[in-house]
Amino acid sequence: MAQEYSWGCPEIFFPFTTEDCLTINIIRPTTPSPDPRGYPVMFFIHGGGFYQGSSFFYHYSGPLSTIIPCGIIFVSINYRLGPWGWITTGDSNYPGNIGLWDQIEALKFHKQIIGSFGGDPERITIFGESAGGVSVSWLTLTPHTDGLFQKAISMSGSSMAIWGQNEGVIESSRILLSKMGCPLIGVAAIECMKTKTKSDILNALKPIMPTVVQRDDLNIVYWGPRIGGAGDLLPGGSIQEAILRAPKRPQMIGVNSMEMLTFGLFADIYLFTRLESFQLLVA
């Protein structure tokens, strides 16, 4: 059992990443719960437009000062980002949505082990912000999460948002595949990508990503979930149909204050990779 956070999944903004990134973090009170069922659990999914972010950024201090004193266990995870989590050929050969399947598998594993950490597997609330809020929304709709959680909180994100169900990921995938010298469709496209290194993919992404944060509309996400790739994830083939089929769970929906400030900072796409820019930001 690790005693510190692992590196996040590969992305172009943060250099300390690894492809071996699918980890789960559990922070719990130091004493057993007075309730024989165990402590309730809050399971967090980070945001970042589906192409950046990490559970590492939500470190010990926040949960220790806000969630843990309330007698709640805090869980956070990583899931694959950018092309690693969302690349698609636009057909059944590779429909996409791998990042959502990462989250589902993390929920399954967490459900199995949380009792060993003093948690109650029947009192789990999933919550997330931005892309994490979108993810939470999707997770409430798929039958693959039945029984894995009881409540949900979506902050600044919904599967109904224009960027929360994004068929544009097909075009993003084809642009990247072309830059990598890979076929654009079929199994051969993904087999070709598997031969590329993390550095190869990141270098190909760099000239693509600036246009993401400099748009004048809300289509600011190149990577993310797509309805057309839902397949077994959303039987029925639409968000509306999935809502009708989904089990009824308590759910809170809201927004974060000043969230778009992040995209203002990233208008300079490599702000945090230049020392002088970073010093201006933190001064």
TrEMBL record:
Top enzyme class: hydrolase
PROSITE patterns on file: CARBOXYLESTERASE_B_1, CARBOXYLESTERASE_B_2
The Carboxylesterase type B domain, residue ranges: 17-263
Alphabetized Gene3D superfamilies for the sequence: alpha/beta hydrolase (3.40.50.1820)
EC number of the protein: 3.1.1.-
GO MF annotations in UniProt: carboxylic ester hydrolase activity
Name of this chain's protein: Carboxylic ester hydrolase
